[in-house]
Amino acid sequence: MSKMIFVNLPVSDLNASMAFYQALGFDNNPHFTDETAACMVWSESIHVMLLTHDKWRHFTSRPIPSKDSSEVMLALSCDSQDAVDSMNHVAAIKGGTADINPKQELGFMYSRALADLDGHVWEAVWMDPAAIPPQS
């Protein structure tokens, strides 16, 4: 079995968050979705578990961060600069916040950061495959 990551996020409105992530390009896995949690799939190895606050509290007693704080910034690779721009645009029209940090244009890499409905920070990133040095 290949290695996978499951990012668990507390959300205040599960249905709204599912719609937001679907608009960004995530698919829902109904086998791991119910009224308290939703499994949103970015790729075969990257899954985001959206958990209601009550469900979240089954896993930890640590406080849920406020919408205006940041714990981590999670980066997702995109196929092009246009895909990065599109993700930020969709985030903004679906209730998230686009460009929460300055856009990064480094020639070989292009990225823009956004926040979801609960303030979780994501960075859409494109890297030029031709700029990656060959392995020696």
Automatic annotation (TrEMBL):
Record's signal peptide: none
Domain named Glyoxalase/Bleomycin resistance-like N-terminal: residues: 4-41
Protein species of origin: Bowmanella denitrificans
Source species, domain of life: Bacteria
Name the record gives this protein: Glyoxalase
InterPro entries registered for this protein in UniProt: Glyas_Bleomycin-R_OHBP_Dase, Glyoxy/Ble-like_N
